[in-house]
Amino acid sequence: MQPSVLVFDVNETLIDLESLAPFFGELFGDERVLHEWFTRLVMYSMTVTLSEHYVDFFTLGGGVLRMLADRYHVRVADPDTIRLQTAMRTMPAHPDVIEGLDRLRTNGFRLVTLTNSPHREGSPSPLDNAGLAGFFERQLTVDTCREFKPAPTVYRQVCEALDVAPAECTMVAAHEWDLLGARNAGFGTAFITRRGTAPLAVHGLPQPDIVARDLPELAERLSQLRRADA
């Protein structure tokens, strides 16, 4: 089935995680600590879900920051965690995103987001701050079900919210773990190779239906598939 709904991950897929690098450079003297922090943040989000607990992604991010500070013998104070949480809410969009979303919307796809990040009621979301919110029909968050991706419940809430079948949805993400979770829930998958990443080519694991460098290339690939099926 050709997808009618494209479900976008937000952090790193649409908005630029690298914008946080100067913050980590200032605190740790090495901007590369950003990637260690984010990897651990994702790992502990999954651990929290598997152990049947929940705190929001930004709160967890502050805790992981303090954990790394202890490891590297760096002093981190409460204002530093607040700065990080503010920065997580205000990351800019990748340069290709507006063009790609515009093409996808023009081509008739329904666009929604599904993010680990919380939405604070009455405050702008990360998509609002990045100037992207107007492209999306819905901004869905794991806060609703209080489990993190790639838990199946997270993806099922998309189908329930939009009244669509899983086969009508394709998950678009720059993270293989997100796509594996989506495939397990019955979604199609599209991998965006941010920072030169590649799919997890392991025999026995499902591979993405589409691999693209950026969103304009994704739009072109989906257009090609539609023309092939016409």
UniProtKB/TrEMBL annotation:
Q: Which InterPro entries match?
A: 2-HAD, HAD-like_sf, HAD-SF_hydro_IA, HAD_sf, PGP-like_dom2, S-2-haloacid_dehalogenase
Q: Which Gene Ontology terms cover its molecular function?
A: hydrolase activity, acting on acid halide bonds, in C-halide compounds
Superkingdom, natural source: Bacteria
Which Pfam family would be a valid example here? Hydrolase
**Gene3D superfamilies (UniProt xref):** HAD superfamily/HAD-like, Putative phosphatase, domain 2
Keyword field: Hydrolase
The record's annotation in NCBIfam families points to: HAD-SF-IA-v2 (TIGR01493), HAD_type_II (TIGR01428)
Q: Which family does it belong to?
A: Belongs to the HAD-like hydrolase superfamily. S-2-haloalkanoic acid dehalogenase family.
Protein name per UniProt: Haloacid dehalogenase
Organism from which the protein derives: Mycobacterium bourgelatii
Q: Which gene is annotated as encoding this protein in its UniProt record?
A: dehII
